[in-house]
C-alpha cells in the first residue's frame, strides 16, 4: 500500500520523469564526450605522425581506422598539388577508384578544383543535384551518392583536397564538419613537412650522385685536415678498400690546405706521385653564412695523359720545324752534289787505277754518294707524300733487300739467318717504303755488331703474324742499347754511333713509314747481348696467299 502511494506521488510530482530525462541527457553527454575524445585522439595521432620521413599514405593510414569509428563514410581519397596539377595520390579502400592513382584532375568544370581555388568546403548530393561536373560520373560509378570535399591549405599555400564519400545519405553534423576542417589543417602541416623532407632528400641524393659520378677526384677536409668525404674517383685512384684514409697528405699538400683555410682563397699545386701519375690539385674554401671557413674542398685532376699529349705535340712541332729545315737543306745541296758526282764519274772513267789521283777521285765519288743517301733520307723524312698502297709480300721485300746487302754483310763476316713464314698474308703497303725500313734496320744491326768487335756477327730475320699483325723482326748479337736511351732512338738526328758513322735519321724515317702504314716498331735490347727490332703492320686490308 505504501509502495503504491510512493509511486503515485512520483507520478504526480514528475520525479520519475526527471530521472529518465537525466539518464538520457547523461547518456548523450557521455556519447558526446566519447566522440570528442575520439576526435582528440585522431588529432593526436596526426600530430604524432608528423615525422618528416613519413609519406602522406603513412600519415593517413594512422588515422583512417579511427576516423571510420567516428564518422560515416565508404570512400576516402587524397589529392595533392604537384607542379600546378591536382593529382590523385591516395584512395581508401585501395580498390575503390575509376581513375588510376597518379591521374591529374583537369581544371575545367571540376568540383575539386573549385573547392581548392575558393578555399571552401563543398557538400554535394550527387543524386538530387542536377549540375554536372568532371568528378560526378566517376563517383556515381563507385556508388557514391554524397561527397564532402575539404580543401587542404597550409597558411596561404595550397596543398590539396580531401574527399569523403558516402553511398547513402550522410549523418554529418556541424560538429563533424568543424572537426574535419580542423583535421585538414593538421594534415596540411604533416603533408607539407613530408614534402619538404622529400625535396631535401632528393636534393641530397642528386648531389651525392653527382659527387660520385664526377670522374675527377674530390675530397672534403675539415679544419683538422681530416677527410670528411670523397668520391668514387678518389677510391679508385688510391685503390682504397674502405674508410676515408686518403694516402696523399704530404706536408706540401697540408701546407696548401692550411693556407686555403687561413687566406680564404683558392690554391693550386701540381702533385707528382711515385707511380708516375701527375695531378693538378685545386683547393677551395667552404664558408657558412657568416663567411667563416669550416672546410676545404680539394679538386684533383689526373693530367698524366694530358702531359703526354702535350709532349707529343711539342715533339711534333719540333719534327715539323726539322722537316722544313731538312727539306730546304736537301734541295740546296742536291744541285751542287749532282755536279760533284757527275764530274767525279767522268774523271774516274778517264783515269787509270794506277794513277795517284784515282784513289782521291774514288773517295770523292764515295763521299758524294754517301751525301746523296743522306739527302734522300732527309727528303723522305720531311715530305708528307701519300704512299701508293698495293698488296705486298713482306717475304719478297726481305728477299729484294738481302739481294742488295747480303754480299756486303758477308764481307764483314756477318751471317744472315732467314726464318720466313711461308703462309704470311699479303698486306696493303708501299713495298719500296717497307724495303727502306728493312734496309735501315739491317744497317743498324750491322753497325751494332761492328761496334762490339765480334769476330763473327749474326743477324736473324724472321717473319710471322700474330694479333692481326704481319711482323718482321731483325735481331743481332751486337753491342745493344742502354735502357735509358731506348726512348730517344727514334728522335731525328739522335745517334749512338761515332762521328761520321751515322746521321740519326734511319730510325726516324723508319718509324714515320711504319706509322703511315698504321703500324709500329718495337725494340727490345740488352747491353752487350744484342737488340731485336720488330716492324708490325696491321692486317685490316689483307690478301691471303695460296699455300
Describe, in plain words, how this protein is organized in 3D.
With 547 residues, this protein is an alpha+beta fold. 47% of the residues lie in helices and 23% in strands. The protein is built from 13 helices and 19 strands. It has helices spanning 2-13, 15-48, 56-70, 111-118, 136-141, 174-213, 232-238, 251-263, 304-349, 356-382, 394-411, 431-452, 506-516, and strands spanning 75-82, 85-92, 104-105, 122-125, 146-154, 157-166, 217-221, 227-230, 267-272, 278-287, 293-302, 390-392, 414-419, 426-429, 457-466, 469-476, 520-526, 530-538, 542-543. A 6-stranded antiparallel beta sheet has the order 3-2-1-6-5-4. The protein starts with a helix and ends with a strand. Mean pLDDT is 78; it is low at 542-547.
